[in-house]
């Protein structure tokens, strides 16, 4: 069963109840401005935040829980993992703190404990303990307007499309997260463009792990191939030297 | 002082500064010495030490391939030096990598936790294996000098070719896997650098520039130790690099044109300028200076070509590994301590390099070993008690002294705020502006709260309502504004000015007027403020605590407002939302404001964290560069 969260931007009133619920459930303490924060409200102690856009648009930001996550494919020690429930979870005990996940994430989601001597990566885990117990995440439970709801991904996708079809003038005809970076478990429908949620240079349609898989598959053949080439070259050069030395000797014999 | 000792003194200074910053980083965490942030998780250490460092260590595998596999024995003299360069390059990179890890003591985790889809997993394994191979390749040199473990040395020397080929195989993977690292960032890396050929480009450029790095090192040594330089032979080695550089340049340009990025090459943007500078330094200048016969046998041309190639390659790697990644947050400028650590690691490597050059037989033939030189003067003349040669011991004391001083200087430079990882120093709370509606915006970031002041006082009972919020007045004032006591945005403030009270220009009080004579003179035993200032707390005030410490401005606002708001929310059904954050932190109020006032404020939210001096970038997140 793959779960998802659907956020309807047109229903969000920006009350931040989800942010408070998240902070309370995960026991994330207060925060204050730090030089290392990105200016979208997410931080090591804010796993979800409300980004405000013009004309009363409130966009709840959190880990998008990609179906083929770049962070999972980037992590060298498999500390980040996908789960059957659709949540991308983080196992702190394996983490070495390389922060390659932060480089890889197309949405810039993972945050770091910059102020700790023993720092970890921090991000939304879709309240994994709660959803594996059959409960819904703290944030969707707290939402007073049902702007953000939790459920089966296929059903929510159908629900999103039903809403788009029912009120085509209200929404932009696009379920954000259906196909972005190979699809995500956090879906948005909205009346404004949500492209700003991801990094800007290219719109990535294919799952990001695909970008490196060709190079990673080439590793064993490249390794063996280089060994064979170098071994062959060594054999060839040695033989060449030997032959030329013999010829030299022969010539010298001849001269004598 | 000769050239060598001046150079070494500088290196020891940098090493001392770097070590102090490094120790601080290990004890207090990354935030204490770096400017790394959530938007630039990899900084100077990756962009300067790790990625370029490994690329420049490529000379090791290229030279050993030329010397041992292709059996070009004319370059045999440079075999040991290139292996040593590679070993030190890798140690430099590995040290920087470990310094940058958040949990450096778990650096061995890739050995037990496998994740073979990750380019960084491949990098980790390559670094570990190649370090081992390089160590085995180099260890015969010191063993030969000391005479230890002769059988091991003979074994390693005999099967050197196996190590050499293994080293080449691992290097091939490793040089290219550093390119693979950045394949996963198509939406971040600038199109002029992002290419699906990145792994191949990284490998080819390492093959090209590696020998140039070896030539540069040989050149520097010959300058420092005043030894003759075999320009002709080195220039011939340089020709090999020229050939590979031509291939590299062509692949790079053709790849850009084929993938339809020709427009970027002539766009006139600053990344384009950097691209052409990089390509000139890395490819054009070495080719020009090394391919013309008239130029290439001169020492100057050799120096220019190699230095330019090495710089260009460093710039290329730095661009891919950081500079050209889109940053949507605060611009990243490394702190001076990051620079210290970066340079300190390099300095340590150079010192080890010089030590090896001086102590071990790094060269074949007579040229290399100064101790074999007949003309070398005795170091100490016993008859006259005069140092003739290099007074080694004297220099060692000098280096130690310099090192200890710079270590202390480094610690002294690190301020307390950084150690507490405060991130930014706290800022003064600014007074609220406005009249009937007050704009509360303590940090002047334009994300504030519009507080209906008149409305509140009317509702709470007119003129008698003031004391409900203005719970304390500073002496000789009435209804003191919040910021007068809660002076800092995020940290509590000490309200009591002891110096002023004791000073003849201020309160001119004797100690006993506050501190009882028979008790120790502490804050706890002193008279409370309202002992003298009876009007400090106005009658009827809601908050009657007198403490020397005033809460931070944000805390004060929240305590005062939330207390009352949540009470009201419970009491009345229509004000149900009053205890929500959005009740105050919202744009709703703004839309009811006259437009000319609205421009003062953009919007406000509890999540927004704005850094002073930080331009509002998130609003334009969608905009690149």
TL;DR?
With 256 residues, chain A is an alpha+beta fold. Chain A is 35% helix and 14% strand. Chain B has two domains: 34-333, Formate dehydrogenase/DMSO reductase domain (Formate dehydrogenase/DMSO reductase fold, Up-down Bundle), CATH 1.20.1630; 433-491 and 539-620, no CATH class.
Description:
The complex is a heterodimer of chains A (256) and B (625). Chain A has 256 residues and is an alpha+beta fold. Chain A is 35% helix and 14% strand. Chain A folds into 2 domains: 3-208, Alpha-Beta Plaits (2-Layer Sandwich), CATH 3.30.70; 218-255. Chain A has helices at residues 17-25, 70-74, 100-104, 128-132, 138-142, 153-166, 209-217, 219-255, and strands spanning 3-8, 49-53, 57-61, 80-82, 88-90, 111-112, 121-122, 148-152, 186-189. In chain A, the strands form 4 sheets. A 3-stranded mixed sheet of chain A has the order 8-1-9. Chain A has a two-stranded antiparallel ribbon with strand order 2-3. Chain A has a two-stranded antiparallel sheet with strand order 4-5. In chain A, strand 4 and strand 5 (88-90) form a beta hairpin. Chain B has 2 domains: 34-333, Formate dehydrogenase/DMSO reductase domain (Formate dehydrogenase/DMSO reductase fold), CATH 1.20.1630.10; 433-491 and 539-620, no CATH class. In chain B, 55% of the residues lie in helices and 3% in strands. Chain B is built from 26 helices and 7 strands. In chain B, a hairpin with an 8-residue loop joins strand 4 (437-440) and strand 5. The radius of gyration of chain B is 33 Å and the shape is elongated. The relative contact order of chain B is 0.10. Chains A and B meet through helix 1, strand 2, helix 2, helix 3 and strand 6 of A and helix 2, helix 4, helix 7 and helix 10 of B.
